[in-house]
Amino acid sequence: MSERILIRNGTVLTLDDADTVHFGGDVLIEGDRIVAVGPTGSFDGAAGGGAGGGSGGGAEAPVTVVDATDKLVMPGLVDLHYHTAIAKGYSDHLPLWEYLDTCWYPIIRALDPEAAYWAALASYTESIKGGVTTVNDMYRQLEALSKAASEIGIRAVLSNDVADAEHNLDTLEDNHRAYTACHGAADGRVEVYIGIEWLPIASRELLRDTRALADQLGTGIHIHLNESLSEVENSKSRFGLRPTEVAYETGILGRDTIAAHCVWLSDTEIALMRETNTQISHNPSSNAKLGNGIARLPEMLAAGLNVGLGHDAAECNNSRDMFEVMKFASLMHRASRVDSSLGQAPDVVRMATRNGAAALGHQTGQLVAGHKADVILVDLNNTMFTPRRANDVAHLYSHLVYSANGSCVDTTIIDGRVVMAGRELTLVDEDLILRESNKAFARVLARVEDASTELAIPPTPSAAA
């Protein structure tokens, strides 16, 4: 007998094809699916166990009623480019290449499964509390991450940090083992993709083998592409081609590929992304913090590319708040192009919901019957949404993108299960997670300092190289 939840009397932002908004609406959930969405009172019979949206046939489970008065009911956010993070705020003053060399790679080399488990729980805690229901997480120790995702209740697409063997990160064999062990865990909430760190530590052979393995397993690929100018120069020096051109040549690009960052795409590379229907994760706040530049988002959208949003990693962002990412995604392009018509709030909200879900092939990102029940309730009764003109959709979208932050999320429902209510996690002990993740960071950092690990990658090429 499936659990049923009736979310009643909220402002329901469906993000469906017709952009339907119910000012006074209900959402009925049965099991892991949304079964009906409509005006308040449409499913009153469901509360008594009678007809009103159930799957039919036999007795129905009692319904749990969630009062959404003064709350916005909307799809959960999809964080399309994500790294579990153990060292938020540590050594974050450096540009990308030096940061990877001195901080990121040494720390993830020193990870053990227990540290990765607590780091993932801490990362997913912050995300759930900010209204994120899906993460596309590239990291290491995937069995530990899968365990964390299963316990806390988040939807997670996991991939390894794969590089050529001499760089002492993960291998395709590691990723294959993780797929076998974890793909489909937690009733399908956990999936495993093949991850490629980035081209400066990957060969053509590795890229071709990555596509072959992804095709063999029937899964996707997650890769960093064209993130920095130094990466572009490195690729031209090593391969005689720009990064996305190499990815195209080796078969990496495709409908099942999430290409993260894509800051420095040429016109040719945008055309290659369009030809292959490759999915893009735009990560504006991370790109700004690392000094990597501003992606050509208007050109990508004009080319018809599907673009979602990601926070990247808390080490190079310091926040997993996707409301903040939405604001950056609008304001950055308006400022750089001197054009306030760019990044309109409704379009940005769709990037953080529908577009991210579509990129991963998930039936989420919209509140429509038949889709997965990944739903958040946002508290409208606070200063972030004041003043709020009644029944004004444009005003609502504006507050979501330009005023709100993750602290306004009251309730998070993933796969039809309430994982946060009243800003309290329901499945895990948050205080324990915070204590243990601090201990894990101290252990890993001590290991790094003892080992004095250095990254064996070529020196950063000059712009004139």
Automatic annotation (TrEMBL):
<feature type="domain" description="Amidohydrolase-related">
    <location>
        <begin position="72"/>
        <end position="419"/>
    </location>
</feature>
<dbReference type="InterPro" id="IPR032466">
    <property type="entry name" value="Metal_Hydrolase"/>
</dbReference>
<dbReference type="InterPro" id="IPR050287">
    <property type="entry name" value="MTA/SAH_deaminase"/>
</dbReference>
<dbReference type="InterPro" id="IPR006680">
    <property type="entry name" value="Amidohydro-rel"/>
</dbReference>
<protein>
    <submittedName>
        <fullName>5-methylthioadenosine/S-adenosylhomocysteine deaminase</fullName>
    </submittedName>
</protein>
<dbReference type="Pfam" id="PF01979">
    <property type="entry name" value="Amidohydro_1"/>
</dbReference>
<dbReference type="GO" id="GO:0016810">
    <property type="term" value="F:hydrolase activity, acting on carbon-nitrogen (but not peptide) bonds"/>
</dbReference>
<keyword id="KW-0378">Hydrolase</keyword>
<dbReference type="InterPro" id="IPR011059">
    <property type="entry name" value="Metal-dep_hydrolase_composite"/>
</dbReference>
